[in-house]
Amino acid sequence: MLKNRFFLIGLGSGIMIGALLFQLMLLGEQSKDNLKQIGATDEHLYTQSEVDALLKAERDSALLNEKKDSEPAAEEKEASSEDKPAADEALHTNSEKPDIAAKERLIRIEAGTTLSQTAELLFSNHIIGNQAKFVKIMKEDDKRVRAGFFLFPEGISVAEAVTIVTKKPLTLEQAEAIAEKTKTE
What we know:
By secondary structure, this protein is mainly alpha-helical.
């Protein structure tokens, strides 16, 4: 009876271990097939230099569009200031909407932008006056620049710019609404 009992325990455990090994084999085949499907997609892999070139081209086109948008506005302001009398100018400067639009800038910081690139972007858009001070404050406080859209008031200090770029960015919808509002004004 004892010999029969050991035989049945060995047979049962052998069947269970065999079933587990069979399941592992099936899982291995399924994951192998899944990996083949992932590699078969039409996605194009880019090298770092290609990504950098694409980002640079996008930034350049955005800057050109921004310059084109600001140049006609500047020309219109000059023409209107020469044609209108001082009383009309006083009325327009007292209205709040044009002042708000003129005193705020919407800047987009791309994902993957380095600290020095962010400092250069803010300097070129006349948000900050000293790139080195911006970088120094960010490094001393061990802060990280967040990617996204940010609204910068005119004439802010470097410390205030640091606070803005480290806080939560605006959503795409908020940024589009602000951009629309400034275009209509």
